[in-house]
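Tokens as discussed.
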């Protein structure tokens, strides 16, 4: 199980249970070390989940929301259109990240859930405060998007597809081998 999938299962588990879930129990359940669980909890907190550590384990106070990562591609001229599309459909763009061959994963929080925040972000870029993170990967990047339901995320995905924002994910090394003829 990949880290992103494991974190979604962890948040689902601690959100649905009224009793605290200990790090050791979560580590056994997900077949990872307790240190990995601690890192996962830190990442989930960074995504906005209100997780409390008690002497008996972790408790999530945040109502469960749907989360999905979208792999997208576009030029700088379409940043505002993309952010507005997601916000208009009821989503929140939690972050942007790229996977760079040399630097690894580079991530920045956005927390854009309205046209006003989208506009302010784009004005910062146009004003020269910074460059878009996707410039290091020729426009290819990922967004973690949250919404109140999977249906809203489905709608966002459909709109991203209709407006040609979605990119085809690159093959993983093990998929390249599986696809070759013997």
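Sequence:
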């Amino acid at each position: 199980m990949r880290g992103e999938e494991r974190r979604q299962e962890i948040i689902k588990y601690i959100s649905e249970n009224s009793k605290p879930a200990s790090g050791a129990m979560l580590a056994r359940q997900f077949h990872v070390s307790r240190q990995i669980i601690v890192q996962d909890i830190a990442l989930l907190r960074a995504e906005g989940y209100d997780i409390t550590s008690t002497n008996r384990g972790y408790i999530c106070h945040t109502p469960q929301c749907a989360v999905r990562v979208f792999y997208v591609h576009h030029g700088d001229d379409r940043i505002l259109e993309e952010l507005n599309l997601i916000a208009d459909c009821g989503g929140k763009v939690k972050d942007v990240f790229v996977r760079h061959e040399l630097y690894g994963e580079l991530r920045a929080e956005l927390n854009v859930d309205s046209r006003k925040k989208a506009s302010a972000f784009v004005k910062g870029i146009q004003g020269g405060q910074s460059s878009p993170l996707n410039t290091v990967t020729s426009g290819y990047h990922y967004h973690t998007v949250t919404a109140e339901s999977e249906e809203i995320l489905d709608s966002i995905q459909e709109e991203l597809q209709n407006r040609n924002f979605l990119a085809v994910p690159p093959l993983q090394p093990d998929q390249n081998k599986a696809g070759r003829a013997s």
